[in-house]
Amino acid sequence: MQRTKGSILIAGASRGVGEQIARHLSACGHKVILAARSAERLNAIANDLSCAAIAPVDFAKLETLPDWFENIVRTHGPLSGLVYCAGILVARPLKLLEIPAMEETFRVNVMAPMLLAREFRRPNAFTPPASIVLISSVMGLVGQPVQSLYSASKAAMLGFVRSAALELARQKIRVNAVAPGLVETDPVRKLFSTLTEEQRAAIVGAHALGLGQPMDVAKAVEFLVGENSTWITGTTLVVDGGYTAQ
After folding, report:
1. Residues 6 or more apart from 98 whose CB is under 8 A from it?
2. Alpha-carbon distance 113 to 134, whole Å?
3. Which parts of 86-226 are beta strand (E)?
4. Which residues are within 8 A (CB) of 55 and not within 5 positions of it... i.e. 6 or more apart?
5. How far apart are CA 136 and CA 151, in angstroms?
6. Euclidean distance between CA atoms 122 and 120, whole angstroms
7. pLDDT tens-place string over residues 199-240
8. How open is the CA angle 170-22-109, to the nearest 5 degrees?
9. Which one, of 147, 43, 57, lies nearest residue 96 by Cα?
């Protein structure tokens, strides 16, 4: 039987990339604590895994996060890692941006992971050496029309990673980000169904190696939370099939 390597909290684990990260880290021997809004969906995933627990939460409700996180530590013990994959994607031109959408996007994409990192660093909450990995996006590195809000939130996440890495290094906590390109998930497939063949070809063609798979991101996360990256902190691992090489 494989020895459990440590407990990792995975935010946004109910579908897509986050679900694949949970499944992969579990297969690698980690105990995974799955977090998202849908308890039903999390239970279905946890039942497939060898060592998993669930902790439903709405990451937009920032005021609930400190107590929620404290309860996780009280129930499951100190964590060895935190992976934040929850997020909101709002694609609209600047002329249509409204304050509620801006506020919700920054609450979920930026403020929630900052709060979780703040709680994670508390002495009884983690076991050093520990690792925090935030899932950003290539849109935090390059621009694209109608993506101003999403890009701004993902760029803010990368700025946080750099500063938090320096601050938490003394506690033996590494902080890094993964910036994926377009990954084949249900929302992407749904988007593609609304596009013309020419539009789909243009998007795929912008990725030299084609579109990514959730496992491509999961393997990058595995590297950053594991023993093979112990001298890496404050950086962004771009996993984009060549999108940003252009």
Report:
1. none
2. 8
3. 126-135, 173-180
4. 9, 33, 34, 35, 68, 71, 72
5. 9
6. 6
7. 889 889 999 999 999 999 999 999 999 999 999 999 999 999
8. 65
9. 147
User: Tokens at residue 176, please?
Assistant: 């890094």
Q: What is the pLDDT of residues 129-162, one digit of tens each?
A: 999 999 999 999 999 888 899 999 999 999 999 9
Q: Do the Cβ atoms of 233 and 175 come closer than 8 Å?
A: yes
The residue from 120, 150, 160, 243 that is catalytic is 150
Cα angle, residue 181 at apex, residues 175 and 182 outer, rounded to 5°: 135
Dihedral pair phi/psi, residue 48, rounded to 5°: -85, -15
pLDDT band at 84, cuts 50/70/90? Answer: very high
Ranges of H-type helices in 28-147: 39-46, 65-76, 99-106, 112-120
Q: Is 150 a catalytic residue?
A: yes
Tell me the C-alpha distance between 135 and 177, whole Å.
6
The position carrying tokens 């980690």 is 30
Structure tokens at 226: 């594991």
What are 206's two structure tokens?
A: 């912008």
Stated pTM of the model? 0.95
Residue 224, token pair as written in the block: 């950053």
Query: For the chain, where are the alpha helices, taking DSSP H only?
Result: 16-27, 39-46, 65-76, 99-106, 112-120, 148-168, 186-192, 197-205, 214-225
Q: Note the pLDDT tens digit of each residue in 161-187.
A: 999 999 999 999 999 999 999 999 887
Q: Which residue has the tokens 């939130």?
A: 153
What does each C-alpha distance from 174 to 108, 116, 167 come to in angstroms? 22, 14, 10
Read off the amino acid at residue 117: A
Take residue 168 and report the two structure tokens written for it.
């938490």
